[in-house]
Amino acid sequence: MAAKQTNKTMGEMISFLRKEKGMTQKEIADKLFITDKAVSKWERDISCPDTAIMPKLCEILGVSAEVLLSCKSSQIEKCFQKYFVFKTILKAIAFSFGIVTAIFGLLGLIPENVGFAFLGIGLACIGLLLLLMD
Predict the structure, then answer these.
(1) Which stretches within the chain are classed as H helix?
(2) Are 93 and 82 in contact (CB under 8 A)?
(3) What's the burial of 72, exposed, middle or buried (CB within 10 Å: 0-12/13-18/19+)?
(4) Contacting residues for 18 by C-beta, under 8 A, at least 6 apart
């Protein structure tokens, strides 16, 4: 029956399987020597089980690792992916505007006011990155 649940996120799957076994989050946590808060975070798709824990967790839940790993991505994972892409774009913009300003400025191909505008955009991107730092 668990294999039919692959349209669930990993957290939903862990919760489903745990409840199917009649276990509490605390019971799962005790068997894995972790806190029940960690299990709660998994089930809410805030975090995922560590790879070192995965074999024992699968044994407890009576499912293969492939079943858990084939679950659909959670909304949180998608948000982290978008966040990573956003940070990468900001870095690329800052780097590009810096390089363009330096090279074109040295060659005399852009007016000073445009060069300062480019540097301002690059610095603004760096400022946003600093605000977003982990």
Answers:
(1) 10-20, 25-32, 36-43, 54-61, 65-69, 75-107, 112-132
(2) no
(3) middle
(4) 24, 25, 28, 39, 43, 61
Place of tokens 């330096």: 102
Place of tokens 């060069």: 115
Partner residues linked to 72 by β-bridges: 9
- Judged by DSSP in three states, 72 sits in strand
pLDDT in tens, 17-62: 999 999 999 999 999 999 999 999 999 988 888 888 999 999 999 9
Pairwise CA distance, residues 39 & 11, whole Å: 9
Integer Rg of the chain from CA = 24
Q: Are 124 and 92 in contact (CB under 8 A)?
A: no
Cβ atoms of residues 15 and 5 within 8 Å: no
pLDDT band (50, 70, 90) for residue 74: low
d(CA 12, CA 106): 57
CA distance 99 to 106: 11
